[in-house]
Amino acid sequence: MAGSLDSLEKCLERHVPAAELSEVKRILYGSQARKLDLPPTAISAAVERDFDLQGYRFEAEPEQLRHPRVVRVGLIQNKIPLPTDALVAEQVAALHKRIEEIVEVAAMCGVNVVCFQEAWTMPFAFCTRERLPWTEFAESAEDGPTTRFCQKLAKKHNMVVVSPVLERDGVHGATLWNTAVVISNSGIVLGKSRKNHIPRIGDFNESTYYMEGNLGHPVFQTPFGRIGVNICYGRHHPLNWLMYSINGAEIIFNPSATIGTLSESMWPIEARNAAIANHCFTCAINRVGTLHFKLGFISHEYYINAFTSGDGGKAHKDLGYFYGSSYVAAPDGSRTPGLSRTQDGLLVVEMDLNLSRQVSDKWNFKMTGRYEMYAKELAKAIQPDFIPNIIKE
Ligand SMILES: NC(=O)NCCC(=O)O
Q1: Is residue 24 part of a domain?
Q2: pTM of this prediction?
Q3: Which of 266, 353, 374, 391 is the most exposed place for a label (fewest CB within 10 A)?
Q4: What is the chain's mean pLDDT, rounded?
Q5: Residues of the chain with confidence (pLDDT) below 50
Q6: Who's near 156: CB < 8 A, 6+ residues apart?
Q7: What pLDDT, on a 0 to 100 scale, did the predictor assign at position 309?
Q8: Cα 299 to middle of ligand 1, angstroms
Q9: Which domain covers residue 192, as residue numbers?
């Protein structure tokens, strides 16, 4: 159960003998991420506001011709503060309030780019397959109340804000999308990126609500580097990461909502592998919130009406526990520890973007990639008359 393990790293620290711990950590996490000193005011604010605050930094070698390109990103993971049957407007307002107080601490920590979890303004209600009230959480990406709220935050704190929401596309028949809005530190909406891969697994019945994104792999030029947003289930698709990287992304955010029984063993691998394969930084963010309803603990993400997964299992009223564990991976394969598995959190990570080219010059994955060969073979493979290249005796 999620509640019995606060974080994998804390568990290792408790149980691995001190003499072996640093070697264990080097093997598991690589050697780069060092602790980042955060202001005492931020640390005490995080304690007061009851969230996990951690800070790390990735360094690069000094170069003769380029200055360091040091930026700070903030990853925010959170529970829903109100039950799923509270009024829609009240749920959204409570989430805005919670995020605002965490973003204030991010500002104290000098964060330049902040990213929230997938569909952060709502419970992850797609499991229910019901329409109302969940579709009421959808908003215009360009000028919905959440985007306007984030514009204020961005301007006030001089921070780029990546805000993944359920989008209501008024121009195209009021359709819904799973979208990340990117707001510049000036407060201007830079653009949006849509979720390209929609899960059809277990209770993740998202294809009931929206289709695969149609915006490709946009990358946003900000004063703090070029950023892309690969939403949740897209992290299982290496070519999805690749395309953001090919478009020049230096940092790829992966705002997610995923649960323990389904994906927790995959979580530490996928975004980290993408950072290695694409010579970039990746930022994996997962929500927190668990059921424990039947055990008498606080319930989050618990629904009034039971639903099924079409797998022969019993009808149930929750998805399971969202395990948090948000982390950042660097192009050299190192990664930060994860945030808590059970608590709201802010992960502040300082990174020198020069590291990406340094690792690229060492490992040469971009140079040795055989993109033309893959493009040709893929172009053939998607044809209806494709014959797989299998050689037989
Ligand atoms: N939100 C979402 O796409 N979840 C699917 C499950 C997963 O990818 O782990």
Answers
A1: no
A2: 0.96
A3: 391
A4: 94
A5: 292-297
A6: 107
A7: 81
A8: 21
A9: 32-381
